[in-house]
Design a protein that fits this description.
Elements: E1 2-5, E2 12-17, E3 26-31, E4 39-43, E5 46-50, E6 52-55, H1 57-69, H2 79-88, H3 99-111, H4 117-154
Parallel strand pairs: 1-6
Antiparallel strand pairs: 2-3, 3-4, 4-5
């Protein structure tokens, strides 16, 4: 899970029905294609980053800004607000104007646990740190295996270095 900074935006806003809610609500996310692989979203646990997401520097800055000031709330800071803000710079959700979705969102917001604003950013940073440490560990294992291979052949009089 990581970002690739690109010069031109390739992201689009997509949505899928949330079947756990009887299809009465939709989950919005950003991706190049209508698939959750390589996508960026927002939910009760904060940032939802899946795979490799190609993003412009401006979109990345908007994402960070949203994370720093917004606590997820299905009624006022939901996934559609996030997707529209990152892509267009406008914090907007069309779902708010459909009375039954608005009512459902209010009920869900009372029952749904969410992260606070500090946790949004901390979990994102922690994931980035974990990714770097895991990559460093993977590389160290490769280096150790390569060194063992070199030593094995060296002990048999063959120079593979």
């Amino acid at each position: 899970m990581k970002f690739e900074i690109v010069d031109t935006s390739v992201l689009q806003v997509f949505k899928i029905q949330i079947m756990e809610l009887g299809g009465l609500a939709d989950h919005y996310y950003l991706s190049q294609i209508p698939h959750l692989h390589n996508s960026l979203g927002w939910g009760a646990n904060g940032l939802e980053l899946r795979g490799l997401v190609k993003i412009t520097l401006q979109e990345f800055e908007r994402m960070e800004r949203f994370m720093l000031v917004s606590k997820y709330n299905i009624a006022v800071n939901n996934c559609e607000h996030f997707a529209n803000y990152v892509l267009h710079g406008i914090n907007l959700s069309s779902q708010q104007y459909i009375w039954w979705k608005c009512l459902g969102a209010e009920v869900i917001s009372l029952l749904q646990p969410v992260q606070n604003v500090r946790d949004n950013y901390n979990s994102f940073i922690n994931q980035q740190i974990a990714d770097v440490l895991n990559e460093n560990l993977r590389q160290a294992k490769i280096d150790k295996a390569n060194q063992a291979r070199i030593e094995f052949w060296k002990s048999r009089g063959i120079d593979v270095g």
